[in-house]
Amino acid sequence: MSEQNNMNKGKVRIDFPPKWVTTEKANGEPYTISNGKGESWPAVKCTLPSGTTVDGKDLSGFSFTTFQKPWNKTDIEAGKGTGVYINADRNVSLFKYDQDGQRHDESVEPQKLSDAVEAARAEYREQHQSHDRAQEQETGLDELCEQKTAEANERESGSQDRSSQNVQR
């Protein structure tokens, strides 16, 4: 364990849910990082969630690639989120393509990026928990309405049966 801690010394960890990270391109090819000497290594592409802001700049939808660790692919394939490590002393190069195919680049300090992604994740969780609570409350009201309607229908149906019995007498 201390060996892994030493390996990650001088690194910043960013945790991503599964839908924000991938090891494969849309065509199924793996993401790689190459050095220009013909060597390449497996990579993870991380996309920043909506609401990711650094120094007042909205970085929603920007991406970066980083070296894939043994657990990344396994985590992603299992539908779990994963954590990536980036060098603490080197800015992260982000990129994003607009609808016209124009590439936009940004450079961000690693710790600021980690903090911004965590803040965006917290906001996302809060919004969805609020939505889920509202939906639960709404569902509870819907069920109550259905129950009361069914009870009223039973009463009405029972009273109609009694009236038809009275008419037959």
Structure in words:
With 169 residues, the protein is an alpha+beta fold. It has one domain (2-125). 43% of the residues lie in helices and 27% in strands. It is built from three helices and ten strands, in the order H-E-E-E-E-E-E-E-H-E-E-E-H. The protein has helices at 2-7, 70-77, 110-168, and strands at residues 11-16, 21-22, 32-34, 40-47, 53-54, 57-58, 63-67, 82-87, 92-97, 103-108. It is elongated, with a radius of gyration of 27 Å. The N and C termini lie far apart (88 Å).
Given as residue ranges, the uncertain stretches (5+ residues, pLDDT < 50) are: 159-169
Which band does the percent of strand residues land in? Answer: 25-35%
Largest sheet: 4 strands, antiparallel
Oligomeric status: single chain
How far apart are the termini?
88 Å
Could you tell me the radius of gyration in angstroms? 27 Å
Helix/strand order:
HEEEEEEEHEEEH
Q: Give me the count of strands.
A: 10
How many structural domains?
Answer: 1
Shape: elongated
Number of helices, counting only DSSP H or I runs of 4 residues or more: 3
Structural class: alpha+beta
Q: What's the helical proportion of residues? A: 40-55%
Q: Mean of the pLDDT scores?
A: 81
